[in-house]
């Protein structure tokens, strides 16, 4: 089989062996022995499956996503297991699937569920400068992860059901660029505490101590997706500048042979550091999409392809008749106050488990794959 045929078979195997109660790609829930819930991990994978449905025309991808959504979204738009009081931006991400589901089926419950999630954003606590808190348990904290989790949904809602006002989204991202970008490397720190009180935050800048590849990946994908959603104009141009600068900066840290990126991207080759799949896939997707949209030079499509095929060469392997995608950091975060291990140090980032087939790596790898398919 060709690599393309292998990937197609791999993804179909994953959905054929998954149900709404237990997905093969949500390794965190599997390890916890818990049934799945409304969460960003499945949301990432469902978004990628919808991209596969669009590019291939294979109904099986869309049907799986619709069946999954129907297991959680009731006719009145309420979402099983979702808790708005947690003010958790992660829980917004899965809402991205509601827009294509509504467009294709016309079922009102999907629009009502989008309203439910939008209400969270209307009431989400904010920093003094207007940025969403990452979660209620992380007061005054802005994480790069949260930009991906909330802002594309926010933009899709404004475009589909709102007034089309994207100014709040752009302003929040401009604040992130101003507060969290390192002027020396052009990279972005994982987190920022506007109150400068949490243990992991620098007392002067409020930023966490190191760069984490996947958080930069989340931010990169968010920007690439927003650039597809926003109409031409000054606001889109602002995001385009931030995105182009970041892609130029991160590309300088690509590993020469594979085109991949390191778990702690500015410290290549340091003991314990490793080439990581999820963040590398996110950057590959962002570069490929940015080039397709005309925001980046055509060279970036080649950079993205090199990274994608480098990941496949290094981490895509057979176990019996089934492919496995390895090199995926399972999870990483900052705090909260009662979790001093998650301190943003180099040692912390390299200590988290590395796993196979988790959606945080599989989904962006699949998204990058769909962009490569667009080139053919």
Relevant terms:
15 helices; 6 strands; 376 residues; mainly alpha; 53% helix; Glycosyltransferase; two-stranded antiparallel ribbon
The major beta sheet can be summarized as:
2 strands, antiparallel
Mean pLDDT: 97
Query: What is the number of independent domains?
Result: 1
Gross CATH architecture:
Alpha/alpha barrel
Q: What would the principal axes of the Cα set say about the shape?
A: globular
- As a percent range, the share of strand residues is under 5%
Distance between the termini: 18 Å
Helical content class: 40-55%
Q: How do the strands line up in the largest sheet? A: 1-2
Counting helices, strands and paired strands, the structural category is mainly alpha
Spell the H/E element sequence.
HHHHHHHEHHEHHHHEEEHEH
- CATH class annotation: Mainly Alpha
List how many beta strands DSSP finds.
6
Low-pLDDT ranges: none
Q: In angstroms, what is the radius of gyration?
A: 19 Å
Q: Return the CATH topology.
A: Glycosyltransferase
Instruction: Tell me the number of helical segments per DSSP (H or I, 4 or more residues long).
Output: 15
Would you write up a description of this structure?
- The protein has helices spanning 3-16, 27-32, 40-56, 59-70, 90-93, 98-105, 108-123, 144-160, 167-180, 213-229, 234-251, 277-292, 299-315, 346-351, 359-375; strands at 141-143, 191-193, 316-319, 322-325, 328-329, 354-355.
- Strand 3 (316-319) and strand 4 (322-325) form a beta hairpin.
- The chain is globular, with a radius of gyration of 19 Å.
- The two termini are 18 Å apart.
- 51% of the residues are buried.
- It is mainly alpha-helical and 376 residues long.
- Helix 6 (98-105) runs antiparallel to helix 7, helix 9 runs parallel beside helix 11 (234-251) and helix 12 (277-292) runs antiparallel to helix 13.
- The chain has a single domain (3-375), classed as Glycosyltransferase (Alpha/alpha barrel).
- Helices cover 53% and strands 5% of the residues.
């Amino acid at each position: 089989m060709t690599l393309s045929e292998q990937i197609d078979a791999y993804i179909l195997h994953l959905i054929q062996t998954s149900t709404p109660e237990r997905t093969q790609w949500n390794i965190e829930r599997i390890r916890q022995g818990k049934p799945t819930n409304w969460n960003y991990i499945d949301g990432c994978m469902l978004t990628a499956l919808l991209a596969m449905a669009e590019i291939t025309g294979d109904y099986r991808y869309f049907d799986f996503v619709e069946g999954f959504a129907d297991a959680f979204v009731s006719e009145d738009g309420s979402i099983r297991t979702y808790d708005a009081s947690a003010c958790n931006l992660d829980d917004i991400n899965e809402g991205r699937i509601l827009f294509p589901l509504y467009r294709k089926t016309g079922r009102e419950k999907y629009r009502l569920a989008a309203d439910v999630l939008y209400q969270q954003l209307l009431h989400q606590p904010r920093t003094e400068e207007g940025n969403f808190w990452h979660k209620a348990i992380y007061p005054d904290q802005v994480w790069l992860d949260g930009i991906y989790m909330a802002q594309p949904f926010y933009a899709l809602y404004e475009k589909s059901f709102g007034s089309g006002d994207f100014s709040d989204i752009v302003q929040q991202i401009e604040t992130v660029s101003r507060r969290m970008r390192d002027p020396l490397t052009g990279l972005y720190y994982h987190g920022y505490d506007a109150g400068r009180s949490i243990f992991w935050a620098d007392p002067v800048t409020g930023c966490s101590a190191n760069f984490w590849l996947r958080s930069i990946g989340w931010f990169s994908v968010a920007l690439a997706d927003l650039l597809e959603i926003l109409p031409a104009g000054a606001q889109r141009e602002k995001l385009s500048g931030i995105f182009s600068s970041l892609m130029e900066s991160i590309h300088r840290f690509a590993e020469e042979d594979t085109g991949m990126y390191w778990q702690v991207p500015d410290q290549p080759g340091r003991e314990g550091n490793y080439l990581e799949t999820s963040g590398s896939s996110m950057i590959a997707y962002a570069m490929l999409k940015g080039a397709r949209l005309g925001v980046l030079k055509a060279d970036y499509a080649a950079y993205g392809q090199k990274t994608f095929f480098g990941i496949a060469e290094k981490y895509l392997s057979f176990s019996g008749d089934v492919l496995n995608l390895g090199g995926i950091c399972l999870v990483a975060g900052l705090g909260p106050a009662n979790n001093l291990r998650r301190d943003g140090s180099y040692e912390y980032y390299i200590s988290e488990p590395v796993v196979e087939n988790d959606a945080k790596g599989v989904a962006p790898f699949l998204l990058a794959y769909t962009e490569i398919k667009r080139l053919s």
